[in-house]
Amino acid sequence: MKLVGKYSVASALRWCLGFINVFVMIAACFMAFATFLSLFVPDLATGFLDGLNSAREDPSRKLELVERLTMLGAFLACGFTWWVINRLRAILLSVNRGDAFERANVKRLQAIGFGLLGIQLTAILLAVVAPLSIDQASSDYDFGLGSWLGILVVFILAEVFRQGAAMRDEQLTTV
User: Which of 10, 38, 42, 143 could serve as a FRET partner for 152 with CA atoms 20 to 30 Å apart?
Assistant: First the structure.
């Protein structure tokens, strides 16, 4: 099986990412709707969070700030994941076409880096507020050095792709 081109590993990976992206998009839309709706109908959000906590639904209970932040964090996590997967799919498409060092991939890699950074910051937010919103002890954020180094690698790769694109453009203009 070939790595790039039609019917390749890159094509299969792009298809799998597209399949996963459908479910991430559904989750992001649901969390956006739930977060937006909680602004106007807080009882719905308290009922949802009480269900997660296996507690009895209390209609007189008010939606607290940590609960709102948990819903916002869930939406942001889904949104950043969707963002990263879409950029990865676009890069795989350009690789399949044989044009990996195009200028657009530099911007896509930078966007992936910022998306991964957003995911990590959202993970910190959720590690603090999510346990509080369902009446559990606060969990510790597990600082994964690999995740943070991965973000750094993506930004370095973006710079490598920028230089590769410049060299490719220079080669195409040389007669």
Answer: 10
